[in-house]
Specification:
The chain has helices at 15-26, 40-51, 70-76, 115-136, 142-145, 163-173, 180-196, 198-201; strands at residues 2-4, 7-10, 61-69, 83-87, 105-107, 154-162, 217-220. By secondary structure, it is an alpha/beta fold. The chain has one domain: 2-Layer Sandwich (Gyrase A, domain 2), CATH 3.30.1360. Bound molecules: flavin-adenine dinucleotide. The site of flavin-adenine dinucleotide (FAD) has 8 residues, from helix 6. Residues 78-81, 168, 172, 177-178 line the site of flavin-adenine dinucleotide.
């Protein structure tokens, strides 16, 4: 059994380039391409967002790769418009095989500092893994084995959204009402987008009280 922390990686992007591309597309509406200057995108995008003219944000996209638990991706995949997913399949991945180091990976829960709760969680995950491996010895297929996997099971998720959908997803999923495990993963991404594309993401609210030391690690996708 392996216990891993959640993480988020993102495909390298140039925020200014994205905003300038959106500006160029948007100016088609007014045939004002001639008004483009080095920083004209700033005012244009701010005006579009204030007025709800947000479809222009659909011209650009960003991809992230998440290491998260099944509960997190169950919630994320509810987003249907402008979001695309490729998710590690528990129907095909048989964690009893060497390729997976003959073990199941679980995401460390946010209550790992609470010794009593964490001990119960860990004992339960170990018990599940023992059952999984025992059944695998009977040549059970991954299809059958997956019926024992809990929400804490780790999965790799590639998620691509257009910029409009990211704004929507992050508004819903970085709020205090969203599950803490999703906030843990997506707040670091929202903070990055606020820094790189303030004209678009500055107005997106988030749970500012979420403990900073618990936020997921964020980095660029390598390779
Ligand atoms: C805090 C929280 C709690 C939740 N609890 C539950 C729960 O208990 N049970 C549950 O089943 N779900 C729950 N959900 C999921 C929620 O109802 C949505 O399914 C999910 O957030 C996806 O958002 P969305 O519908 O905006 O989809 P997106 O695909 O992100 O859609 C983006 C926007 O496109 C438009 N749109 C998309 N599809 C349609 C459509 N078919 N018709 C018209 N307009 C459309 C809407 O304006 C929508 O906001 C919860 C979500 C949150 C954030």
């Amino acid at each position: 059994m392996q216990v891993v922390k959640p993480k988020i990686e993102y495909e390298k992007f140039d925020g200014v380039k994205i905003m300038k591309n959106i500006e160029r597309a948007c100016r088609t509406c007014y045939r004002s391409e001639g008004s483009i200057t080095e920083d004209s995108y700033k005012k244009l995008l701010t005006n579009c967002i204030t007025r709800g003219h947000e479809s222009v944000l659909e011209h650009e996209k960003i991809t992230v790769r998440l290491t998260c638990d099944i509960g997190v991706y169950k919630d994320l995949t509810r987003h249907r418009a402008g979001a695309s997913f490729s998710i590690e399949s528990t129907r095909y991945c048989n964690y009893s095989k060497d390729k997976y180091t003959n073990s199941i990976k679980f995401i460390e829960p946010l209550y790992s500092d609470d010794k009593e709760k964490y001990a119960i969680w860990k004992k339960t995950m170990q018990h599940i893994e023992d059952g999984y491996m025992e059944m695998a010895k009977l040549d059970a297929a991954a299809d059958e084995l997956r019926m024992m996997l809990p929400h804490s099971t780790a999965a790799e998720v590639t998620m691509t959204c257009n910029i409009r959908e990211w704004k929507h997803v992050l508004t819903l999923r970085c709020s205090k009402h969203a599950h803490p495990a999703i906030r843990q993963l997506l707040i670091p991404f929202l903070l990055l987008l606020k820094e790189k594309m303030p004209e678009i993401f500055d107005s997106v609210p988030y749970d500012e009280d979420f403990p900073k030391e618990k936020l997921a690690k964020i980095s660029v996708i390598r390779g």
